[in-house]
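Pair request: fold both.
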Amino acid sequence: MYEFENYRLDPVRRVLSTLDGTRVPLKPKAFDTLLCLLEHRGELVSKERLLESVWPNVVVEENTLNKNISTLRHVLGESRGDHRFIVTEPGRGYRFVAKVTEAFDDPAAAKTPAERPVPADLENGLGSASAALSEGGSSDDMARPLPSRARARRTVLGLSLAAVVALAAVVVANRPALDPKPAVRPNSVAVTPFTNLSPNEEDRYFALGMHQEVINQLAKIGDITVISRSTMMQYADGAKAPREIAAEQNVASVLEASVRRAGDRIRFAVQLVDAETDMLLWSETYDATADVANLFAMQTGIATNVAEALRARLSQQERARLARVPTRSSAAYGHYLAALAADHSSSADASARAIDELRTAVALDPDFALAWANLAYVLAVAPTWRPDHAAEYQDEALEAGRRALALQRDLPETHHALAVVHLVRGEWSEADEAYRRALELGSTRAEMAEIGNFELAVGYIEQARATFDSNQGANPLNSTGLAFYLVASEIVGDRAAVSAAYEQGNAFVSGWPFGEYLMNYVRLGRGDTDALTDDRDAPPYFKAELGRLGSDAGLAALHAWYAHLEHPTHNEHTVAAAWAAHFGDIDLALRAARGATETRRHNIWFLWLPLFDDVRRSPQFAKLVVDLGLVEYWRGHGWPRFCKPIDGGEIECS
């Protein structure tokens, strides 16, 4: 954390703010430029060094750097001739001259949760945002205690947690990045799936939806690191105690809750447990009618009380985001929660249900901007399951995103959703701008983990690798992010990091299906067909048997399989392209690559793998990246390591 004059720069969350917590909008490359200058404050930083640091392995003109410096001068309030922060040394470079201090954003953040003072309002048992709803200490059956997980200490069968952590530590001890056991962040929390105590099992969706909403609320606080719902669902059976969960997720605290809904009444029993001491940091029982205003007040109360218990800094902008009420319709909000509970990314049926629930929500409340934004997001990624509906889904996603934007232009979730819509459509500049705008409005990079996928798609591999690495620090068991880190490491030639990531993923995730699937592309690119695996219970399959047929027979079998597919998924297109590249059939590889990117243009990422070196040298590959709009984006933002402009306006890739 760097502080200078009235500014604070957080390199982990990539946020520039004033000392009172107000965020200062800054484009990613301008942020990187400022960070480099701060890291070398007082030193002359040459233009060459800045270009290499901010645009590694990307060809940009010096004028681009000059624009970044001008942007920084403007943002920091320097007037012409006033160089309080940045001094230019003509022909040589730049020097950051203001006094800079390194510090925690709150001195209490350096303490463990057990050492921090408890806020006065918590000592009184009342949170400032929830006092009107709070009736702690009730003893009727609606206030049943939390599940046994809260205090239980059960024996873990098989490989113990300590052994797993030790294994991961040994495997990755010498890695240059992706620290296997980073220091526990003081303001970090894992939210276990809420226990449904309602007599009606159909209310399970309500508990699942509220679990996601509380995670969403906590993720809006930049000073808190919260583990994603997808990672936390593995603890739904309640078998592990808070200390075990915290050790696996590398967090300082665990939030647990039970939910009971009876008629028009709802009760939340919530507690925050310190991972190191197993002491209770905060607890509350919320009891109210189940109308939408009370539900939002509960969520806000939980988030603000957790922030206070952890002594996390909460800016006015963040408080405003937490307090925002997205709809007045209880019915619409019920369908919205059902959509969250469906977990759209888990299956085709779940995706279809989430879409139906969100469509119903916006039909009930056409002004429900947050539901429109979520509908846009879910529709944008739905072609993963239904490629035959790709065109209509993408058109509806764009329309839903625009509807959300018209209703509420300053809603970060809308810009995040539009970023994903534009990413899938291959509208690179629009996606870049939407991500930037979402960050300006208060979204955290943790909320938008797919920024790394955007960077990977446009060929900025080093930046993507750094993003995936950073995300792993905040969410150690994010197996999808770890898999993409593995891919990025293979592309840059860091085989040691690939091996370490692969071993780490398998140590923490049984079988690691997605990691195994992506590792097959790595193996095939290295010619190691004997190591290919294809023992998955569900698609995508890698067709490992093709490697045992020999070149001619394998290529013939590939053609027959691919021609037989009626509606290939993007994964099937990608597998076909990979095997075609392996067998040297460049035409088929490019045809399949076009199929893979037709419905999901950001799927271009796989073509940066070494397996496709020969494919990229084809003039038809250059035509593909032109058709995908990448060349236009590169001309304005910098060229990747694989492609460069040549005479006559043409490009050359390798």
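--- second member of the pair ---
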Amino acid sequence: MNVDIAVLTAKVEEYGSFFNRLQRPTKWPGTKENPNQYAWTLGAISTGTREFQIALGLTHEQTNVPAAIAALATFSIFRPRYLIFMGIAGSLDRNVSKGDIFIADYVRAYQYGSISEAGILEPRSQFQEPTDQTLRTNADAFHVTNRWWRHVGKKPDGSGYPALHFGGLASGDAVVENASVGYFAPILKHDSWLRAIEMEGAGLALAVRHLREAGYVTGLMVLRGISDMPLGVADKTASATPGATANREIRKQWTRYASKAAAVFLEQYIKHAFPYTPAEAEPAENTGGELAPTQLDAEVFTTYGSHFIRADELPVIHAINRETYRPSVLISTSALEAWWRANPFSIRLISTSSGRAVGYWHLVPLTAEAYQGMVEGRLTERDIQPGQILQYQDLQAGSVYLYIGAVSARLKMQPASAAVILDLIAFLRLLDDKLRIDGICAQLVSTDALPLVVNFAMTKLHEHDGISTWVLKSREQIDRALKKGRQELERLKGLVPESSRKEKRSVLQLLKR
């Protein structure tokens, strides 16, 4: 089954805080093959017009290895679009107060390093994983536009309401009572951006990295309520007093408050500002009397969706390339990422409804000089520099030249590969309607790409060292190619739908100059 969001917690207090905010919470029954290992509960959070489907789990074991195992098990059963670890953490910054909310910009597994002969830890940066920028950006905007903290109440010490902070998250398997001396001090010196510490985030991040490299699309967020502050944080000169312990009742009070604050923030964020609308709950569009789009073959087209990739999805693209092409014909991963940074709307990922990546296409707007160089054979794909790649909003009528960098489908997903070409054709049609395309070229490094040039009815110009260049360089060719591409897909798999009004609006906004 598929849910929108999976929320994992490590402590029963955290689990209970979010459980109480779910609508219609129901224990997942489990099966003989997949028993309910992590007290999974299914529920919903309503926005008033639609509902997000939520799976809530309890690892019940702190530290990163149990968190990674729980995350993979949760994903294998529920296929969430986003994985969120929610709970409590300690502050490493005097400005991040107890009772506040912290969202990780990145997760650092801080315990990797070496112990010197003097017995001092020398940290190393083996594992530092970014979290989902989309979730972070929307959470920041939500915090400043919504009085969510009213649902939490004032802090136990009466100092006010919770604030929201971002930064680096230190994740390890040790409880740190003193951050200023001994074992942990070199870690803070090594990475001064660390602002909170906990024990599960690195495991979750590693699990999500594994899922992305396997071709799945899932986002990552680590959200924490601050429940304590190690010695040496509030007062940099503080030192530990041997045998000193904090008042247990006060700690419990802050733990309960921090758990509640994190649960309330997450509930209100999902309810009011989450960055997408569940597909099964999208409101129907008013067609104004127009005929509804004809549905496609259910086995191919009604089960996929697409979106422009984010930075954290680049590993998925690299994984598809490694699976699809010989290493000798690929441009370097650094070059591909530099192209993407030059135009972040050039790569679009196509996925099944369960989040499994089918493939992607890569469409690169080029300067007129670069395009002409490719047509004349003076320039190959490997020669393209980021400075020769344009943003869509910088394109000028009469000089709209495009290079098809890739139309790739995973080998195991070949029955659905037509969906990748369909999606590219849909985008090209919108682009042509808005700006009028003046030329399209592609360079083939493998016979596997021949269906692409067949579908687009491209003309072969030349071939050198096994690399052939194909073009559409006249309006007549471009019009014929888009029409033929559509007809070919209709012949193969059924009728091609018109893009929705929502998709057209988003693309037109992208092309606005």
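Observation on the second member. The CA atoms of residues 287 and 501 lie 9 Å apart.
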